[in-house]
Amino acid sequence: MALARLLDSDLFWSFRRSPVTVLSALVALVCVLGAALAPWIAPHNPFDLASLNLGDAFKPPAWDEIGEASYPLGTDDQGRDMLSAIMYGARISLLVGVCAVLFSTLLGVTIGLVAGYLGGSVDGLLMRIADIQLTFPSILIALLVDGIVRAALPREAHDQIALFVVIFAIGISAWPQFARTVRSSTLVERNKEYVLAARVIGLSPLHIMATHVLPNVLGPVLVIATLNLGNAIITEATLSFLGVGVPPTHPSLGTLIRIGNDFLFSGEWWITIFPGAALVAMVLSVNLLGDWLRDALNPKLR
User: Fold this and answer.
1) Main site of residence (predicted)?
2) Could you give the angle at which helices 19-36 and 82-118 cross, rounded to 10 degrees?
3) What are the tens digits of pLDDT across the range 121-165?
4) pTM metric for this prediction
C-alpha cells in the first residue's frame, strides 16, 4: 500500500517527468551500491598490504597499449588497483558525509525547535551563536575543530579516532543552517490552533515540540540535508586532500586525489583524474537530487 501510494504521488510524478533527476538518481545509486558492495565486487582489496606488488605500480588504464585488463583504471604508486581504491574510498567519503549530515541535522533541528518555541532570551542567545558561526567558512571551522581535537589527544590515538573527529568537525560546522530554518518554521507553527490546543490540555513543551511541531517543520530540513550531503563530502575530501582527514591507511577519495596530485605532471594522470571524476559525479548527482526535491516540495517553485 505504501509503495502504491508513493508511485501514485505528485512527488514520484515530478521525479519521472525530469530526465535529469532520473539520471542523477541512477548515478547516485551506482555510487552508493559500488561503495556499499566494494568488499564483494571490487576486483582487488587495495588495503591488503600482503597482496600489493610494487612491480605493478604506475600501470596505465586497461585501454592503453601497456595496460592490463586486471587493472581497468590502472594502478597508483603502490600498485593498488585504482578502480578498487575508488570504490573503497567512496565508502569512507559517503560514510563521513552521511554521518556528518545526520549529526548536524540532529543538533540543528533540536536547537531550532528550542529557540523557535521558547523564544525570548533563549532564542536570542542561540541565534546569535549561529550568526557568529555563519561568519566563518565551514571548512575553516572544520579545520579548527580538527586541530583542537588532535592537539588535545595523544598522537598514537589519532588514527583510531580520525574518522570520528572528521565527522564531528564537519557536522558541527553545518548545524546553523538547520537551526535557522527550523526556528523560522517553528515561529509560525507555535501560534497555530493545534499547538494552542495542546497547551490547553496540559501537554509539556517537550512533548508538543517532539510530536506536534517537529513533523510539520521537517520538509525544508530534508531538502537542506540532501544539499548538505554534497557539501559534507566535498569538505571531507578537502580535509583529506590537506592531510588532516582520514588516515592514509584507509584513504577516502580526497586522499586518493592528493596522492595522485604528486604524479599528475609526470604523466600518471589517471591516479588523480579518476578519483576526482568519481567525486564530481557523486556530489553533482546528490546536488541535482537536492535541487529537484526543493522544487518538488515547494509548489511555488514548480
Assistant:
1) membrane
2) 110
3) 888 899 999 988 888 888 888 888 877 877 777 777 667 778 888
4) 0.89
